[in-house]
From TrEMBL:
Transmembrane segments: none annotated. Keywords: Hydrolase. This is Alpha/beta hydrolase. GO terms for molecular function: hydrolase activity. Residues 25-251 form the AB hydrolase-1 domain. The keyword Hydrolase applies. Pfam families: Abhydrolase_1. Gene3D superfamilies: alpha/beta hydrolase. SUPFAM superfamilies: alpha/beta-Hydrolases. It comes from Blastopirellula sediminis.
């Protein structure tokens, strides 16, 4: 089956999705600044999974080829888009796989719309709280609005013991900002606190739940630890030699995803 590349209206925002394969539906949700290509297709994960499943990847609002509004239409609306995608495709429930920000979207969809979710797999993500890193997200909003830069976030996600140089920050920023609208990303950052969850909300999840985290991912490990502490049935895979960015480069990641989907299928 050739990939279908389409759009749908999600509460007034045009959202792009790509669909390929047959069988049980799996929805892929990418991270902040990324898109379908740079989140899934370029890492061969989309093709790998579509050999076994009906795979749908979505450009989150503010990203990729989806609309990029500058107003306060992010936060809760971002996981609302997941449900509206399922409605558009007439899918009763699906497996969700989310990386970083996409993991926050997947976890919130699971909490607020449990009947629409068969299983939840989080990559480089976990149970972040609503009040976490308020200063970071405020600094990021200012940096994106004033300079079109991701520097505050890059410094947090940098895995080396030594802080990144200005040259390294500039190179990373150029790569991650390619094709992005800084004011739209600033708006995403402004509403990011709405993607936080409480321990009680995670504890109430009955859906099969797993987190895959890089052993060197200092930024997301706390959230992964919280997820496993909050949920009595959540499982965990720690990937050696991987940080927040390089997790997607690990060749075994596709197998981890398939193993989880087969266990819960």
């Amino acid at each position: 089956m050739a990939a279908v590349d389409e759009y749908f209206d999600s509460d007034g925002v045009k959202i792009r999705y790509v669909e390929q394969g047959y069988g049980e539906p799996v929805v892929l949700l990418h991270g902040f600044t990324r898109n379908i290509e740079h989140g899934w297709i370029n890492y061969k994960l989309f093709d790998h999974l579509s050999e076994l499943y009906r795979v749908i990847a979505m450009d989150a609002r503010g990203h990729g080829k989806s609309d990029k509004p500058h107003g306060d239409v992010y936060g809760k609306q971002m996981y609302g888009d997941v449900v509206r995608l399922l409605d558009h495709l007439k899918i009763e429930s699906a497996n969700l796989v989310g990386y970083s920000m996409g993991g926050r979207m997947a976890l919130n969809t699971t909490i607020h719309f449990p009947e629409r979710v068969r299983s939840t797999l989080l990559l480089a993500a976990g149970a972040g709280r609503p009040g976490d890193a308020v200063e970071l997200w405020e600094d990021l909003q200012d940096s994106l609005t004033s300079h079109g830069q991701l520097h505050p976030l890059m410094k947090v996600l940098w895995s080396s013991r030594n802080p990144p140089s200005e040259r390294q920050l500039a190179a990373m920023n150029a790569n991650l900002m390619e094709g992005n609208d800084p004011l739209a990303l600033a708006a995403v950052a402004r509403g990011y606190w709405e993607l936080g969850v409480t321990a009680e909300q995670v504890a109430a999840i009955q859906t099969p739940l797993q987190v895959v985290i890089g052993e060197e991912d200092a930024a997301a490990r706390l959230d992964a630890d919280r997820l496993c502490d909050d949920s009595s049935h959540a499982t965990r895979v720690d990937v050696s030699g991987a940080d927040h960015f390089t997790l997607l480069l690990k060749p075994q990641l596709g197998n981890y995803i398939v193993d989880f989907l087969q266990q819960v299928g």
